[in-house]
Amino acid sequence: MKFKLAFIGFGVVGQGLAEILYSKEEELREKYDFEFEVLAISDVKLGSIYNKDGVDLGKILELVDEGGKISDYPEGKTGLDSIETIKDTEADTIIEVTFTDMETGGPALEHVKTALNEGKHVVSTNKGPVAQEVNQLLDLAERNDAHYKFEGTVLSGTPAINLAMKNLAGCEINEIKGIVNGTTNYILSKMEESMGYQEALDKAQELGYAEADPTGDVEGIDAQGKTLILSNTVMNADMDLEEVERKGITDITKEDIEEAKEGNKRWKLIAQSKRTDDGIEAKVSPEKIPLDHPLAGVMGPTNAITFSTDHLGEVTIIGPGAGKEETGYALMVDLLSINDELKG
Length: 344
Fold this sequence. Notes:
By secondary structure, the chain is of the alpha/beta class. It is 41% helix and 23% strand. Helix 1 crosses helix 14 and helix 6 runs parallel beside helix 12.
């Protein structure tokens, strides 16, 4: 089969996937028997294009790179909004990469529901819908004979969800502990090098690791959403965002860092989900980790997760948790996964 793709959103992540698809089209066909054409792209800022015969990704990427708009593409219909692009085009697979709203899930939640109700597959890196209604969305996908994949919502291209759900199948996962926010890990790493909190944050912003408004990272909001996703998918919980306790790193001082060093420990912002007699407990909080723990050696903007299992003990995966190419790769993995499942 040939996948007919539509992008909803064409920012950094969408362009990351588009570049992979464009540069590796022949390899994807020959090595993975994955064939595709992009029929439509809709972006709030860049406009939209739809051509039932497909668009030239190289020309689209060149247009955007030169500061133009998608709607400047010379062949096809322009003016479709996101919902119209999902419902009124012949695309069978939707790549949902719009901005994330953890509180409501919108507008991505409506995009995902609309696509699944139309029987169209969805791959997405958007945490909002997964955090809000993951189980309902997976049920909706199953009822409509569609697939919904979201590997990139936790560690970008580093396979956290797939590792737990596929490669560790048959293991009981009793606890998940991880560093799931690279910004805070970078700041804490720099504080160990004698930087103050504000100086480390300024450096993170200078390097692009932190936003102009870093609240979502330093207050643990980003990590809270990822913890909820892991809890509801890997641990089969049915939790809401407010049930995940949250504390950020803003109160950690140089003195705290030095005290941890003296005790052969290191501060990390830890996302944790574990089984208890009362069910799943989940939280995000700074924690002093012994230096011999695998997570203690993870420095800078790198992320890592340790899964505690019955058969294998602790299994740790370490890798990048953000980035244009890395997150685009997560979407590519999800597309290949759907391709394999459809071929049976």
